[in-house]
Predict the structure.
Amino acid sequence: MGSLKDYITLATILLIYVIIAFAIAVVRKRNDIADVAWGLGFILVSWSSYFLGDGNARALLVNTLVTVWGLRLAWHIASRNSGPLEDFRYAKWRREWKHFYTRSFFQIFLLQGTFLFITVWPVVFININSPISFRWLDVAGVLIWFIGFYFEVVGDFQLMKFKKNSDNKNKIMSSGLWKFTRHPNYFGEALQWWGIFLLAISFPGGWMTVIGPLTITYLLRYVSGVPMLEKKYAGNSAFEAYKKKTSIFFPRSPIA
């Protein structure tokens, strides 16, 4: 399960990373940097824990998956946020919050780092444990990860392409994967972590790392992902019609 010293080392590395990300956000006056830092933070903690362990094949596989996901997500969000305006969520908090910088550090950056540390636990667990042979459950985990990656990447690409078309201004994306779930990208991100959990569960005590996928699924579905975007479009007649026929999270055939 790794030593307490290993976890303290990783927590310290992550805290330093969080402080640096916050400092950049203060200088640039853009708290949406936290979204870019999210995926990169997983890569940092994953490889840091990898070098604390034996560097076995299973760990290399999992770290590669996390790296592919994290780099792709960071690039996508950085491209999306490349305009002059801060993301609407952070801009709203900037207008409303008293003691803005203190709340930003604790309520955005440090809190995000805490959730990151919990979510990445299956990866850390794999990295710092003694290696074990591959099993059929590992194949299932990798397949589930790829399905999740497909939903996230394709969902993001379809939405980006939709928004770039000026004819779609003020319209709601409801085709492609968005026909089966209102948030295919969030569903895909959560599913990837369930796949990684299956790669950790074969270790003695690996079942405890279920807190990782449970945490990210809860956050995306009920806290920082789905609710914020749904609130943004509340009252929009097209979105209300879309809601009535399309699943909020888990994909299913639309209601006629």
Remarks:
- The mean pLDDT is 94.
- The radius of gyration is 19 Å.
- The first helix runs from residue 4 to 28.
- Residues 85 and 143 are 38 Å apart (CA to CA).
